[in-house]
Amino acid sequence: MFSKKFDPTRDLNDLTGKVAIVTGANVGIGYSTVKHLARKGAKVYLGSRSEEKGKAAVEKLQAEGVGPGEVLLLLCDLGTPSSAKQAGERFLEIETRLDILGARSVALAVTYDRTGHPAEDGITEMMMVNHVGTFQFTKTLLPLLIKTSEEPNSDARIVTVSSNAHTSPKSVNFRDLSEFKNEYAKNLLPSLSRYSVSKLANVLFSNALQRKLASTSIICISLHPGVVNTSTASRLPYPRIAGFLMWALFKSPDEGAFNSCFAAASPAVRESADKFKGVYLVPVGKIVDAAPIARKEDVQDDLWQTTEEYLSSLLL
Description:
With 316 residues, this protein is an alpha/beta fold. The protein has helices at residues 8-11, 28-39, 51-64, 81-94, 125-149, 178-181, 190-212, 239-249, 253-256, 258-265, 267-271, 273-276, 297-313; strands spanning 19-22, 43-48, 70-75, 100-104, 118-120, 123-124, 157-161, 219-223, 280-282, 286-288.
């Protein structure tokens, strides 16, 4: 495919008339994804759970220039199922189409959820934000995505940013909420273990969703953004050393957004839709096998059913 050559500035088509949402977008990869889509003409909603940080990000983008596109703030707190649903409902009140949903889960292993303390009903914050909140947000918006996909010349896509960390868990199951609540307190790096399980849930969710949307033209893709130099460095042990290593070895957030941009809007994806439905991508645009457990339909179904049952218990 494009491998190292893809550049959204050159390789994306005109996105005028398209509407997109990118969650977790006030910094880093999400921010750069918003910028690239807007500069191709899309109307992009920058999802942020902080109004202050979200407004600052929108203002910064506007100052940098978004070309023919438009960037708007969407308050989007995925920290509880109810707030995730409310965010989706706010969008439905103001828009009549949605072409691209970029779900960039925002709970990171080193910047968030250091303790594993439960967010709600005993579920860890990592799993709540990265999976449950994302699931509810997507579910709320799904009817509009389907409606948009039925329009002439439509190209609706759902992109879930996961990580190669999803390959670490080997023997988890999601037949009940136990894994949602597992703090991995005895592991050497508990937060990394929780993060890896939540990233596995992202891939399982994307794959299950693609199967459920088999009768539609919607393309669901999960992906690894690559190892990216973000503000995370300042929160690592020995931040000066970590910052230098990130500067020397890691991609910039702008480059880190390339794989997300490819999945969200590359014409090559729509031209080979059957090839890209339900795949896992590594930078840039390269299809690889996700972890074996992520490809098991019974595990996908267990995760989906357990999540649905939990949300139903909340009357959502």
